[in-house]
Amino acid sequence: MSALIAEDEIAHEADIVWLEDLADLDYVRQSLDRLPTRRGKPAYHRDGRMVGYALLGPGAKPSRFSGTFRRRVFWLLPHDRDSEPDGLYATGAPAEAVDPRTLAPGSKGRKTERSEGGPPSPAIEERGITLPN
User: Fold this and answer.
1) 128: helix, strand or coil
2) In angstroms, what is the C-alpha Rg of the chain?
3) In terms of C-beta density within 10 A (0-12 exposed, 13-18 middle, 19 or more buried), how is residue 89 classed?
4) Cβ neighbourhood burial of 9 (10 Å; 0-12, 13-18, 19+)
5) 117 φ/ψ angles, rounded to the nearest 5 degrees
6) What are phi and psi of 74, to 5 degrees?
7) Residue 107 pairs with which residues in a beta bridge?
8) What is the largest CA-CA distance in the chain?
9) Measured in Å, how far apart are the chain's first and last C-alpha atoms?
10) Buried b (16+ CB within 10 A) or exposed e, 15-51
11) Rounded to an integer, what distance in angstroms lies between the CA atom of residue 98 and that of residue 37?
12) What gap in Å lies between CA 49 and CA 66, rounded to an integer?
């Protein structure tokens, strides 16, 4: 879950590669996966689809025990809002989901009104703030 990802666990990220246009995604799920390399597109073994992944810089060290690297993978399941807008996540979002517009290398991102599926709050509207599309 994104709440369980600590900033120090992703401190060696150099870049994030997106496989889909973020304009179409209100949220993405993120997890830390054990992968054999620092870079390159990882294999994907979940239901749904991978929508992005992190690349690590040369300072990232492999696990002493497994030789693997912990890298973030961003993904969606078949019942997520992008595929079923009126489904389970018409409002709200999974615990591990964040708004992809808030993500950057080394930053775990956060939930927003957009990722939660809600309309802008009155306070946001009163201030004339435009939320990410």
Assistant:
1) coil
2) 16
3) buried
4) middle
5) 80, 10
6) -110, 135
7) 104
8) 54
9) 24
10) ebeeebebeebbbbbbbbbebeebbeebeeeeeeebb
11) 25
12) 26
pTM of this prediction?
A: 0.86
Q: Is residue 109 part of a domain?
A: yes
Whether 15 is in a domain gets the answer yes
What is the domain range of residue 48? 2-127
Is 101 inside any structural domain?
A: yes
- Assess if residue 132 is contained within a domain: no
For tokens 């969606």, the residue is 76
Sign for the CA dihedral angle at 99, 103, 106, 110 comes to: negative
Q: Give pLDDT tens digits for 53-107.
A: 999 999 999 999 999 999 999 999 999 999 998 889 988 899 999 999 999 999 9
- Token pair 């595929």: residue: 83
How many domains are contained in the chain? 1
Question: What is 9-65 written as a DSSP string?
Answer: GGTTEEEEEESS-GGG-S-EEEEEEEES-SSSPPP--SSSEEEEEEEE-TTPPPPTT
